[in-house]
Amino acid sequence: MLTRNLNTFIHYLKNIDLRKRFTFMRLQFTGISFLLALAFYCPAFAQRSAAEYFEDGNTKAGTGDFNGAMQAYTTVISMNPDHAPSYFNRGLAKANLKDYRGAMGDYDRAIELNPKEALYYQSRGVSKSLQDDYRSAIDDYSKAIELNPEEPKAYYNRGVSYAKLKNHRNALVDLDHALSLNPDELAALYARGNCKQDLQEYAGSLADFTRVIELSPKRTGAYAGRGLAKLELGDYQGAAADFTRAIELSPNDSEYYNNRGLAKTKLEDFQGAILDYDKTIQLDAENYNAYYGRGFAKGKLNDPRGAIADLSKAIEVKNAYTGDPKKNAYIGKINKEKLDELRDQVQTNIKIDKLTNERAEAYYARAIAKSKVGELKGALADLTIAVELSPTYSNAYFSRAMIRSAAGDQMGAVLDFTSSIKLRSDYPEAYYLRGIVKNSLGEINDGCLDLSKAGELGYQQAYKVIGAYCN
């Protein structure tokens, strides 16, 4: 049996909390090797047997001629419609041509013919992952693991899928398992380092990236990832050194300069930081983190006018929360009419709270009454006073978000829903409403994650919306 490795990769960027002023990290899915199945017996077709066409497909796939390979496997299938390996290999050929939907159709048929082959499920999972269908991909990886529990790539791919869904604990379990089966697998070490950073386990993250560097000293992202871990652990000199190495390996990546600028700022090397922020902006004129960092450094160097100019850019560039709040672009799957319908279906359960000396509760109750008679401006004014008097008043932020959304200020609504969630992390209605608003504004992935959290917290309506607008 001939075996050739034709690895298919997918990458994604993971944004760290922007308040930390560094944003670049990568994870990677391991590709499924192109499986060349055992030759099989078939009667002759014209002058060539099915086995010869099959081997021809394997040879063409091995040289990168996936169109030719696909045609060869199609010929085999016309001769033997029940040959699962030909459907599978044709699916791999389609996947290499980025026809992931077509590949899935072939994997489906291969699985129908041979439901006990783990690699078929794993390959279908990869095609689903490449279409961002991570939940369904996880089902396929789980089936592959059930059939072959000793295959580390299945745990790895499932772990990265969990990470994409921000289920970092489950991701870490799978990545640990993958590494227990293959301790020096670079992709798994790298992914686990990223996952640990998401879980704020920075010492563990640093150890993983260090091991990646030991195994592959020119792996740029590992230096960047370790630099981020060192920043969080307070080793600013070490962080700057790692970002310098990353820059040496990849001198046109703006984020490495930006992150080194942050490390220099922490070391109070403001002149050096400004040079790095200058380079960041030269490479990426819309990097608002760099304007923020440079503005801060200029302020420390007694250049207040320069600081104001840069900080103004930091506020204005690519900021959806500035400008006319009513000029929303409803570019998501949920249009404005559906947004209004879904929001208005949410029933808020208003309970009387003890009146404090500041009387924020009275402003809140009056705002609810005003909103019921259509006095939205008065209601917003009362709710604003309520949160000024009681900054931890979660229900007031929630109600103000509802009214802002009804008035067309969707960005303001998102901010208020976020405030209510920060104050009360188990607020299902806030996750639900923030989810549908984000979806309507085109932030579909984040919106669907909010809806998933609402469902997890018991708000069952969320799953109906997920079914209609997230899949």
TrEMBL record:
UniProt keyword list: Repeat, TPR repeat
SUPFAM superfamilies per UniProt: HCP-like, TPR-like
Where are the TPR-type repeats located? 50-83, 84-117, 118-151, 152-185, 186-219, 220-253, 254-287
Q: Known Pfam families for this protein? A: TPR_1 (PF00515), TPR_11 (PF13414)
GO biological-process terms attached to the record: receptor-mediated virion attachment to host cell
Q: Which InterPro entries match?
A: TPR-like_helical_dom_sf, TPR_rpt, Ycf3
Q: Which Gene3D superfamilies match?
A: Tetratricopeptide repeat domain
- Decide whether keyword Transcription regulation is in the record: no
For this protein, the record's SMART domains field holds: TPR
Gene Ontology CC: one annotated term = cell outer membrane
Query: What's the protein name?
Result: Tetratricopeptide TPR_2 repeat protein
